[in-house]
Task: inverse folding
C-alpha cells in the first residue's frame, strides 16, 4: 500500500506546474484525478486533469458514498472519487491536489496522509499570477484573493509548507519530503 500525499495551495500559486515537475521527478508516483462540475480550461483533458461531470452526476456520487472527500467553492463541486484513489494506492504512492477543506476531510479518514501546502512568495505575486493566466474573470480574481487569507491561515495545520518562488526549487523540496515520508 502506498502513501497518500495531499497538496494544497491558493489558486494561482502554481500547483499544477509544480506537480508536473514532481510527477516527472519520481516515476513511482501516481496522480489522483479529482472530479469537478466546473468547465474545462483550455488544454485540460477529461480523465487526466479532472473528471468533468454534471452537478446531477456529482450529487448522485455523493449519495452513493463514492467520494473520499468533496467540497463546494466558486459555485462548483470538487471531490476525490474513492475507487480510483484506492486502486492507485494499491500500486504505490499517490498525490492528491485539493483545497484545504478537502485536505482536512482526508486527514479525518486517512490519518497517515501527508499534507503539503504550497504558499506564494507574496500576495502581490499571487495576484499577478492569477491575472497572468488570462482565464480568470475580475470577479473570480476578487473572490479568490478574499479566500487567500483564510487559506494561508489553514496552512498552519499542514505537515509541511513549501513556498513556490521558483518552480524547480519548490518541486525539489516536495520531492525530498516524499522521499523522507515514503521511502
Result:
Amino acid at each position: 500500500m502506498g502513501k497518500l500525499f495531499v497538496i494544497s495551495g491558493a489558486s494561482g500559486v502554481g500547483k499544477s506546474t509544480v506537480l508536473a515537475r514532481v510527477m516527472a521527478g519520481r516515476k513511482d508516483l501516481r496522480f489522483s484525478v479529482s472530479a469537478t462540475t466546473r468547465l474545462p480550461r483550455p488544454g485540460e483533458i477529461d480523465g487526466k486533469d479532472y473528471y468533468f461531470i454534471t452537478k446531477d452526476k456529482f450529487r448522485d456520487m455523493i449519495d452513493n458514498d463514492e467520494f473520499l472527500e468533496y467540497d463546494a467553492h466558486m459555485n462548483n463541486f470538487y471531490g476525490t472519487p474513492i475507487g480510483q484513489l484506492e486502486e492507485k494506492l494499491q500500486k504505490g504512492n499517490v498525490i492528491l491536489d485539493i483545497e484545504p477543506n478537502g485536505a482536512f476531510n482526508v486527514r479525518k479518514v486517512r490519518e497517515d496522509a501527508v499534507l503539503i501546502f504550497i504558499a506564494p512568495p507574496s500576495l502581490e505575486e499571487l495576484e499577478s499570477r492569477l491575472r497572468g493566466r488570462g482565464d480568470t474573470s475580475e470577479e473570480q480574481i476578487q473572490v479568490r484573493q478574499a479566500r487567500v487569507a483564510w487559506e494561508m491561515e489553514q496552512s498552519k495545520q499542514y505537515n509541511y509548507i513549501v513556498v513556490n518562488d521558483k518552480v524547480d526549487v519548490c518541486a525539489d523540496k516536495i520531492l525530498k519530503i516524499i522521499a523522507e515520508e515514503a521511502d
Remarks:
- The first helix runs from residue 15 to 25.
- The chain is about 45% helix and 25% strand.
